C-alpha cells in the first residue's frame, strides 16, 4: 500500500538540462556515421544573446570539462557547461525538415521572444526567437 503524501512534503521533479527528440538523435547518429566523427560527446551551449535573444551552438568533443553537466538522451552523450545549463534547463533539441532543408531547433521554455513580433498565429517572423 502507498501512503498518501503529507502536505509538508516537497515534490521533487528531475528535469534534464536538455533532451533530444528522436528525430534529433537520429540525425546526429547519421551525421556521426556520414562524417566519421570520432568524438564521444555532443556539446550544447549558449553563445550569447542579442536583439533576437539567445544564440545556441552545438559541436562534437572528445572529453568533458571538469565542471560540465554530463547526460545522455536518446543514446547520445551530451555535455553542457554550467553557465549554458542555467539558460538551457528543460530545453528540447529537435530536428526539423522542411522544403528548404533540415535544421536543429532548440525549444527553450525559459525564453520568451524578444523581438516584439506577434507570433501567435504560429508563423515565424524570421527573427529566430521562435
From TrEMBL:
<dbReference type="InterPro" id="IPR000361">
    <property type="entry name" value="ATAP_core_dom"/>
</dbReference>
<protein>
    <submittedName>
        <fullName>Iron-sulfur cluster assembly protein</fullName>
    </submittedName>
</protein>
<dbReference type="InterPro" id="IPR016092">
    <property type="entry name" value="ATAP"/>
</dbReference>
<dbReference type="Pfam" id="PF01521">
    <property type="entry name" value="Fe-S_biosyn"/>
</dbReference>
<dbReference type="GO" id="GO:0051539">
    <property type="term" value="F:4 iron, 4 sulfur cluster binding"/>
</dbReference>
<dbReference type="GO" id="GO:0005506">
    <property type="term" value="F:iron ion binding"/>
</dbReference>
<dbReference type="GO" id="GO:0016226">
    <property type="term" value="P:iron-sulfur cluster assembly"/>
</dbReference>
<feature type="domain" description="Core">
    <location>
        <begin position="18"/>
        <end position="118"/>
    </location>
</feature>
<dbReference type="GO" id="GO:0051537">
    <property type="term" value="F:2 iron, 2 sulfur cluster binding"/>
</dbReference>
<dbReference type="InterPro" id="IPR035903">
    <property type="entry name" value="HesB-like_dom_sf"/>
</dbReference>
Amino acid at each position: 500500500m502507498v501512503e498518501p503524501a503529507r502536505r509538508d512534503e516537497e515534490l521533487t521533479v528531475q528535469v534534464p538540462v536538455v533532451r533530444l527528440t528522436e528525430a534529433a538523435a537520429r540525425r546526429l547518429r547519421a551525421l556521426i556515421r556520414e562524417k566519421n566523427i570520432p568524438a564521444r560527446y555532443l556539446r550544447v551551449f549558449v553563445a550569447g544573446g542579442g536583439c533576437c535573444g539567445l544564440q545556441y551552438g552545438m559541436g562534437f568533443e572528445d572529453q568533458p570539462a571538469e565542471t560540465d553537466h554530463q547526460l545522455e538522451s536518446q543514446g547520445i552523450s551530451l555535455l553542457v557547461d554550467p553557465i549554458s545549463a542555467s539558460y538551457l534547463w528543460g530545453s528540447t533539441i529537435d530536428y526539423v525538415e522542411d522544403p528548404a532543408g533540415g535544421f536543429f531547433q532548440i525549444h527553450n521554455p525559459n525564453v520568451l521572444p524578444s523581438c516584439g513580433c506577434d507570433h501567435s498565429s504560429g508563423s515565424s517572423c524570421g527573427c529566430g526567437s521562435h
